[in-house]
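anyone seen this seq b4? input:
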Amino acid sequence: MFEDLQRLFRESVAAFRSELNRREPQDQVAELLSAMRRELVAARAALPEYRSALDRARAELASERSRLEQTQRRGQMAARIGDSETVRVADEWAARYRERVSVLEKKVAAAEAELELRAREADEMKQRFQEADANRILLVAELKHGAGRARTPEDGGGSGAPDADDVEARLQELKRRMGKA
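predicted toks r here
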């Protein structure tokens, strides 16, 4: 009898824990939308940093171009007066500045492309979030329908208890369709 009580107690605790971990479809959809909103906010909040990085790269490029122009002018002035040593040094420095300018032009192009990509991703996230939020009721109904099918024995749902794996699979499918997983 004591073993029966222990078994019954363990089963009760297991049932309590499974009920505790089970979430209603409304909660699942709200949690999903909340996660989508957090990701959207984070993506949009990062955009100013990408713009700032682009501005810094452009400023650095402008500075290096200015140094290149100054060095080239100095070399030309030295060539006019016949100062070959200054011409040689100016040519060396001009080559260095040309290389820096080339690297910085690539850096600016990459920063522009990254900003464009991140902005487009944020716009897509916003669109997906708005679609999911607008279809909130449909998503809840679909989850409830899935849970209801799991409960009905005539639909192959078994003993009437919801199949948490089936509900979880449907939630994952919804997330995948909304671009979340």
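Helices lie at 2-21, 25-81, 84-134, 136-151, 164-177. DSSP finds five helices and no strands in the chain. kinda curious what u guys think
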